[in-house]
Amino acid sequence: MPYIPNTEEDRQEMLNSIGVASFNELIKNIPEEIILKEKIDIPKSLSEYEVVKELQHLEKLNHPTSELVSFLGAGSYDHFIPSAINAIISRSEFYTAYTPYQAEVSQGTLQAIYEYQTMICQLTGMDIANASMYDGGSALAEAALLAVNHTGRNEIIVAGKIHPNYLRIIKTYCEGQGIVVNELVSSRGALLPEKLALNISDKVAAVIVQQPNFYGCLEDVDELSNITHQSGALYIVAVDPISLGILSPPGDYGADIVVGEGQVFGISQNFGGPYLGIFAAKEFLLRRMPGRISGITIDTDGQRGFVLTVQTREQHIRREKATSNICTNQGLMMLAATVYLALMGKKGIQEVANLCVQKSHYLANEIIKIPGFHLKYKRPFFKEFVIQTPKPENEIIRNLAQKGILAGVNLRMFDPQDDGILIAVTEKRTKKEMDDFINELKAII
Predict the structure, then answer these.
(1) Same structural domain, 193 and 131
(2) Would the pLDDT of 328 be above 90?
(3) Of the candidates 306, 341, 376, which is a domain's last residue?
(4) What are phi and psi of 386, to 5 degrees?
(5) Rounded to an integer, what distance in angstroms lies between the CA atom of residue 200 and that of residue 353?
(6) In a domain, 302, yes or no
(7) In this structure, are residues 158 and 181 in contact, taking their beta carbons and an 8 Å threshold?
């Protein structure tokens, strides 16, 4: 790509066309604290050999990852990943697969998408699923936009505690479109349905609930669903997909749209991505769904074939009819999830979910036996729970990290007023690892 410089006259002409006087006025909506004020002190250039040596030096400063036991959660989880997944998705026909736009040369990709969609529908109890979104947060924000477009209303209610990062994404999507986002929170760890009943109106396009919620607690999803539908709003549920091994699928309690973070399905944590946005819905919302959907058909020779059945972005249909500008799906991550679900099967997902429940409750029950430690919310929970501590959260987290234990997520990093450590326990954690965690907490106190 050639570098095309702009003169000061060129830049001023562009600013004039936009309707602003200066570049600073153009970026006035960017928060002041993230704007770079000083020049970056870039070190001198190095040869390839020197760069490799420097990276190797930095690598040695890290804790060996094999020695760290992770109780981190908050949307990204240390689940077991069968070796077959990376072996399969690394095959060249998958890793370098052709775009699914042209069905005649991408049957394998389209079939994988079709299988993925089918399993997501079976898991969630929904009618249709797309080929995936970027991640759980973008999927939830797209669901909010869909609800507004479908109902013609311009308010969204977030009922209960959803992931703070998801909430920020929703607000970012909605701000420029005049969509009002109202939050209903509770000090009990889950929202009382009566609070939703008092705040909902015929201006609300959708009610968003996370199940389990950000704190790991279970919401009263059945009653929240009834209240939502009585007002004519859509019911959007963000799920931990693994939880559906033992919890009722959202389709059973009236969800209109189901989204989730698919990282739990055989995808490494990868320092935050790439991840997989799950998006499923009832059939009446098909034409408003973002992204792409693979379908099955019969060709002129009577052979089964796969095609992109629905594509609702502006590249394929009139721009004013487009429902989203999402232009792709997480194809390789979708394939990893498909392989994971096929390998684990129904019983495997149930077993993983059950192990998460049993192990997390064991750890929670043992921690609260230590003087000064308390379970913040006395609610049913899935695999995450919040512990209030007698010493500052960061002090405990730092001390345990030195012992090779990643103790959890300090909730104050999301909200300074929100105390406690959010601890996640997956099927990978052994009794010895949990007992070591408990003994190190006792030693700190």
Answers:
(1) yes
(2) no
(3) 341
(4) -110, 130
(5) 33
(6) yes
(7) yes
Return the bridge partners of 375, or none. 387
- Note whether residue 24 is domain-resident: no
The predicted model gives 347-361 an average pLDDT of 98
134 and 279 assigned to the same domain: yes
Which pLDDT tens digit goes with each residue over 53-83? 999 998 888 766 557 899 999 999 999 999 9
Strands 374-375 and 384-388: antiparallel
Calpha distance 47→222 (Å, rounded): 61
Residue type, 176: G
At 95, is the secondary structure helix, strand, or coil?
helix
CA geometry: angle at 101 spanning 99 and 106, to 5°? Answer: 55
Average pLDDT over the chain, rounded to whole? 92
Query: pLDDT tier at 1 (50, 70, 90 boundaries)?
Result: very low
Residues 335 and 186 in one domain: yes
Cβ-contact 367, 116 below 8 angstroms? no
Let me know whether 361 and 241 are in one domain: no
Residue 94: exposure state from Cβ atoms within 10 A (0-12, 13-18, ≥19): middle
CATH number of the domain encompassing residue 407? 3.90.1150.10
CB 393 within 8 A of CB 412: yes
| Angstrom distance (rounded) from CA 329 to CA 134 | 6
Contact 196, 159 (CB under 8 A): yes
Largest CA distance in the chain: 74
Structure pTM?
A: 0.86
Q: Do 167 and 75 belong together in one domain?
A: no
Nearest CA to 342 among 108, 90, 115, 77? 115
Tokens for 110, please give them: 């389209």
Q: Using DSSP, state whether 268 is helix, strand or coil.
A: coil
What DSSP element (H or E) covers 257?
strand 257-261
User: What integer pLDDT is reported at residue 313 of this predicted model?
Assistant: 56
| Secondary structure tally for the chain: helices H, strands E | 13, 15
Half-sphere exposure of 326 (CA within 13 A, CB side): 29
Angle at 30 between CA 29 and CA 31, to 5 degrees: 110
Instruction: Give the Å distances, CA to CA, from 397 to 311, 373, 404.
Output: 46, 14, 11
Range of the domain at 129: 83-341
End-to-end CA distance of the chain: 59
Q: Does 77 share its domain with 100?
A: no
Mind listing the pLDDT tens digit for each residue in 263-321?
Answer: 999 999 998 889 999 999 999 999 899 988 999 999 889 999 999 887 755 555 566 66
The verdict on residue 267 lying in a domain is yes
| 313 and 413 together in one domain | no
* Total number of domains constituting the chain: 2
